[in-house]
Design brief:
The chain has helices spanning 2-7, 14-30, 72-81, 85-104, 120-123, 128-138, 159-171, 203-208, 213-228, 241-249, 266-269, and strands at residues 39-47, 53-64, 68-70, 113-117, 146-151, 175-181, 198-201, 232-235, 254-255, 264-265. By secondary structure, the chain is α/β, with parallel strands linked by helices. It is globular and about 55 Å long. The chain binds ligand C2E and calcium ion (3 copies).
Amino acid sequence: SKARGRNQVTFFDPQLQFALNQRNDILRELIHATDKQELILYYQPIYNQQKAIVGTEALIRWNNSQLGMVPPDQFIPVAEQANHILVIGNWVLHTACQQLQQWASDKQRAHWTIAVNISAKQLQQKDFVDIVTTALTQYQVPPQRLKLEITESMLQEDVDNTIAAMSKLREIGVRFSLDDFGTGYSSLSYLTKLPIDTLKIDRSFVDNMINSKEDTAVVKAILSLAASLKLEVVAEGVETAEQMAFLISAGCQHYQGYLLSKPLPIEQLLLLDS
Ligand code: C2E
Ligand code: CA
Ligand code: CA
Ligand code: CA
């Protein structure tokens, strides 16, 4: 009964057990996801002020027969802990480069970039530069078409080697975006040392910007910082016309969010006006 349950001393936390089981289920299935072709890349378009698509962000989806559609927030962290992110990350990189190769002969889309999310373990691989250049070469992709999205939190360990690898890739033309910008803890002076091209304003600021003076100030500060450092800015998570209008008036150049388009499977992306 309820009363007895309450009096029992229990070392069993059902919530925790559920989380552990789920983690094990996810990992057991995830190991086979690439072989079983259960991974899919969706593409969310990124627009400029003229409402033209300048590129897309590749966002992974996993459709498993047992677990259904598992969102990346649930399986990417599991993959990261198990080092399996290296396999998945490589699949993402190759799939994105293959897509860029297809667009190369498509006049409407030959200039589009694809931004790929990179995890810390991928970036810290000793042969990361080779891994990226191999994919670019295999699909004959101009390096300028590929963007790599990293976060500030990835730049805490092994910083010198990480920056050296990024600089090598940037020399050949690969570009870098700092994702979820504003949510990390790094000092701003750090920004000048990073070989990056773009700041992506985190969705949380865009979300609160209209109602919060503080978040308005943060967005404006990011835009002016970016302008003085000659960095591009992409606003993430733009959901309303009001947010869009504010961002345009504040001088933001690039936009991504549900107002413009959700992440789409490739067939649907190709139906959009470019
Ligand atoms: P992220 O890189 O910050 O990606 C943006 C997330 O915001 C995506 O969630 C996207 O669908 C969502 N989003 C875009 N516009 C809007 C909007 O207007 N409103 C709201 N509420 N959300 C919006 P998603 O696809 O679920 O991905 C979640 C996270 O999973 C990503 O966050 C990224 O950190 C990670 N992820 C996704 N794909 C990959 C991948 O291929 N590799 C790695 N390492 N991580 C990935
Ligand atoms: Ca991202
Ligand atoms: Ca982001
Ligand atoms: Ca995020």
